Amino acid sequence: MDRKKILLVDDDVRDVELTLTSLAEHNLANGVAVARDGAEALDYLYCRGSFADRPRGNPLVVFLDLKMPKVDGHEVLRQIKNDPVLKTIPVVVLTSSREEQDLIKSYNQNVNAYVVKPVAFDAFLAAVKQLGLFWVLTNEPMPNDFELN
């Protein structure tokens, strides 16, 4: 199974480019699938639409923006964490929102981490680097053939 390591879900082209640049510096970018909105993210996860032919398997982690068109990040998170097949995928909210209600709602929906995107270029790159290295290289993912009760 040739599964992608990271599903990056973000509608901001600049943030996607910065994230991919940071991950590329650590040889993690070739394992990234990009979804430009929540609907695309769900299509990727459920192997439908333009992702119908992608190799089966869940990503190791989802980096998820909250404020997006079509389907927002909270709804994507809700669907992931309520689906028996997807719920073990770690989801990291990577957002510019510092709103307390977004933070609380995300943790109530079982997000694994909530990271506010740093505004400064170098700080943004450093934050993405740390996230990528931890979730792809350090964290032990759930085995593909394991089923939760």
Beta fraction: 5-15%
Output the CATH topology.
Rossmann fold
Number of domains: 1
Q: What gross morphology would you assign?
A: globular
How many helices? 5
**Structural class category:** alpha/beta
Q: Output the CATH class name.
A: Alpha Beta
- Low-confidence runs of at least 5 consecutive residues: none
- How many angstroms separate the termini? 24 Å
Mean pLDDT: 90
* Reported CATH architecture: 3-Layer(aba) Sandwich
Brief overview:
The chain is an alpha/beta fold and 149 residues long. Helix content is 38%, strand content 14%.
Structure characterization notes:
The chain is an alpha/beta fold and 149 residues long. The chain has one domain: Response regulator (Rossmann fold, 3-Layer(aba) Sandwich). Helix content is 38%, strand content 14%. The chain has 5 helices and 5 strands, in the order βαβαβαβαβα. Strands 2-1-3-4-5 form a 5-stranded parallel β-sheet, sandwiched between helices. Helix 1 crosses helix 5 (121-138) and helix 2 runs parallel beside helix 3. The longest helix has 18 residues, at 121-138. The protein is globular, with a radius of gyration of 14 Å. 28% of the residues are buried.
